[in-house]
Amino acid sequence: MFTSIAGRSVIVTGGSKGIGKGISRAFAARGARVLLTARTAEELEMAAAEMRATGGDAIGAVANVSSLPDMERVAQRALETHGGIDIVCVNAGIFPSARLEEMREEDWDGVHDTNLKGTFLTVRACLPALKQSAHGRVIVTSSITGPITGLPGWSHYAASKAGQLGFVRSAALELAKYGITCNAILPGNIRTEGLEALGAEYIAKMTESVPLGRLGSVKDIANAALFLASDEAAFITGQTLGVDGGQVLPESLSAIE
Ligand code: NAP
Questions:
Q1: Whose CA is nearest to atom 31 of ligand 1?
Q2: Could you read off the pLDDT of 129-138 as tens digits, one per residue?
Q3: For residues 192 and 218, what is the distance between their CA atoms, to the nearest angstrom?
Q4: Which of ligand 1's atoms lies nearest the C-alpha of 216?
Q5: Which residues are catalytic?
């Protein structure tokens, strides 16, 4: 249905687990050349090896998104190994919970260093190579939390995710002259290792609040990323794509039967 993305060079931050692993797997399965990053070497290598075992072209590079030298090293590796960078999936993120009364300054800074500063540093480091691509794409994994909804215990996270949208819209304008599009996916609650860590009670409550009656899968998000990376999405920029099973729609609890 869509033009092939085989051979395109893709970077996925936070590619060792969850949504990032799902995105990496989907690109690798379609013949793209994938470089995935995370901080934990063993998990990262296992994820890349899993993709290679099914015929994918995938390598891992250990890097912290809140470090510019790390991200410049990642961009360099993609240049050397894959000959350039076409698609950057800015996905690494953390979501620890802390109520405002207990939240420490370092809790706030930690979330913003990874989620928001990491977004800037990833794009900053990849930009010189991305500008050379004829199909440049930046795809940010934001969230419904912050841009659309609020969630007690996650004010630092929500602020970082809403901040990513300000970044996306302004970056889209700056990058337009190079033909690079910049968009955000807003996932609802997606079953990942990170989400499982929030506990069974959280997952049960969230499932009840989804009109389509289930939590999302990493494939649901990967499909949105594939679409935004496609040639067919070349005229879409500065936009958000919600993938949440309708979770943000109900005006009241009684709206979900
Ligand atoms: P996850 O399962 O916890 O995976 C997070 C990934 O990010 C891992 O690969 C992790 O590896 C990496 N990572 C974390 N901090 C990093 C850092 N400083 N530098 C480099 N890599 C880092 O999380 P997920 O649920 O897939 O979430 C992925 C993204 O989706 C996040 O941006 C999150 O905000 C967003 N999101 C998730 C949901 C959901 O329901 N799951 C909903 C909305 C939005 P290391 O720890 O080894 O670095």
A1: 93
A2: 999 999 999 9
A3: 7
A4: 40
A5: 157
